[in-house]
Amino acid sequence: MNNADIKVLLVDDDEMIRDCVAAYLEDEGFSVYCVASGEEALQLIAAIRPAVCISDMRLSGMNGEEFIVTAHTLSPETCYLIHTGMMYCLSDELHAIGMSADDVLLKPIHDLSKLVNKIKQCAAIRRCTQ
Amino acid sequence: MPHSDIAKQVHKHKKTLLDILDTLPSIIVRVDRNGRINLVNRRFEQFSGITAAEAKGKLLQTLIPQFAGELQQVAVVIDCKSPLTNARIQSGSGANLRYYSLQIYPLDSDVSGMAVIRIDDITEHVRIEDIMAQTEKMIMISGMAAGMAHEINNPLGAILQHAQNIERRVSADIPANRKAAAEVGADLDLIRAYMQKRGIFDFISHIRSAGIRASDIISNMLHFSRRCDSGTEYIKLSELLDRVVELAGTDYDMKKKYDFPRIELQRFYAADLPPVQMSVTEIEQVVLNVIKNAAEAMADAGMERQPRITLRTRLSEGMAQIDIEDNGPGMDEATRLRIFEPFFSTKEVGVGTGLGLSVAYAIVTKGHHGLIEAHSRPGAGSCFTIKLPLKGRG
Ligand SMILES: Nc1ncnc2c1ncn2[C@@H]1O[C@H](COP(=O)(O)OP(=O)(O)O)[C@@H](O)[C@H]1O
Ligand SMILES: [Mg+2]
User: Cα distance from B323 to chain A (closest Cα, Å)?
Assistant: First the structure.
């Protein structure tokens, strides 16, 4: 699969974070979509059906957890990753939709190539299960 | 009973008493009111380097002058018939700083006018108390740091990731870079040559390592407080250790700086060990910190022998025990006593944060009601022992 075929949706209220992660992922050839809130992301997600959605936890408006739980009902085949600056423990709801501790990435990510590997892994799994 | 038998009996009893005194880990001395010695045990001989025969009749305060101040009280203790305790006496300084407790008891028998002195080395005990107090403090600070972490980690992320973006956008390997350079009438190779000449690549890589350093300090600070209250699982120690070894193998620093793949790993896992209840991510962190230290110590020592880490698990007095042993340079006693202190590091500034083992200590003792200890001698490697209750965090 070509990286351009892999759609990645970034949800973060910090523009700096959206920009720097997006720049890297775009250089890798992924199709990257950025939004600043969970509400905006929900409007998009059903239309683009991203392979991977990377969401911050602390967002203005709905928080990351609420967002992912709702987004999962709209786009269940998307692989959700959490990108947060706080120590975060997965809630029961997120466990229930199949997320594990490996899906929580703590900011700052030291080396974005690790994120790239994670995205490719997720995309590969998605392809197999489809 | 014939006289000679009685003498034999007396001799036997005396011998038994002396054996008991010699078995005790304390220094025991019997003196008269002037401090003149008439009996010492073996521990005294070892401590002072003076044999019992030599010591007899000498003034105790001249043989162990570091305790002379306290020993002035001997006569008072004998006269008042009430014992005296001094719980914390400092002796030496810097690397030789040690703590002792000293007790003087009036001898309550027909041989009056005598006192028994007992001295114990409580250095380890005092150290543990200090470390506990400091750990408590760190846990408190950690709670406050958690609130700040979010604010700090976002800008740090931007710094680190944009530094990485800059590196990539001047990289010769990405075709888009050549194309963009050509569009503005520049040659990427010349741009790279200029950057090289002016040390700019080094600047960028320094931004990255400085960012990682700052981020490590923050994440270590956060590890003092509990991460997931819900997150306890039963896991086999063998599985956990294998996972950490794999994690260490993919760690950038471990590969580049500490040559982790060159280290020989030996694993001896007890078959009869049941799964242990714990916060897996936390104990993984503990084991990773200890393994990293071993790799760092062995790399720093530039060892000629094959570097080796040995992992062992076993059941020990109802607890699950992990031993992590290296054949590196080891450490002296003064260092060993301080390694669990927050911010204690013998590494260069910028290399060590001194938080790795103090985090490990907090997680094991506070978070899991377990124990963590280090055994080491200079030149003889180090062995870290972690003991966890089987139902650690219920
Ligand atoms: N395996 C080891 N061999 C030798 N010394 C060690 C070992 N592990 C830890 N140490 C000592 O303990 C100190 C504290 O370790 P740590 O708390 O992890 O902080 P740091 O690694 O940042 O220095 C180290 O600086 C080192 O002196
Ligand atoms: Mg360390």
Answer: 26
